[in-house]
Amino acid sequence: MNHSERFVFITEWYDPNASLYRRYELLYYPEDGSVEMHDVKNHRTFLKRTKYDDLHLEDLFIGNKVNVFSRQLVLTDYGDQYTARQLGSRKEKTLALIKPDAISKVGEIIEIINKAGFTITKLKMMTLSRKEATDFHIDHHSKPFLK
């Protein structure tokens, strides 16, 4: 690990006193676990670099909510290209299939997925032929969840 390595994220925090969202640049230094924050709008330092043991590298991914000194920050974007290159591939991905008999409830299903905190990045509606469905499931044929 590079001694001067730092990761930058754009975050949002809802300020209940002002009833508005504030945007910050959150800098995380993995070498010593310290953080620093800058107000994006005013271009001012909001929090000087400070050691903060409750934030870890595995917590830092787009869409996650992290607490920094009792402020719940939502990580909305990468703050620089270095961070995007280094941490961008760490997103967890999954595939969801909706069976034909549930198509009438697809709106409700998508709403449940979003409320659970997942982000849908690619959505495609298609009907698989019997051969495509068989080919897709061939690796899982012996698995108990298909029985």
Automatic annotation (TrEMBL):
DM10 domain sequence ranges: 3-91
Gene3D superfamilies xrefs: 2.30.29.170, Nucleoside diphosphate kinase-like domain
Location (main, coarse): cytoplasm
Protein location: Cytoplasm, Cytoskeleton, Flagellum axoneme
InterPro entries in the record: DM10_dom (IPR006602), DM10_NDK7 (IPR057579), NDK-like_dom (IPR034907), NDK-like_dom_sf (IPR036850)
Protein name: NME/NM23 family member 7
Keywords: Cell projection, Cilium, Cytoplasm, Cytoskeleton, Flagellum
A Pfam entry, by short name: PH_NDK7_N
Record organism: Rousettus aegyptiacus
GO CC aspect terms: axonemal microtubule; centrosome
Family, per entry: Belongs to the NDK family.
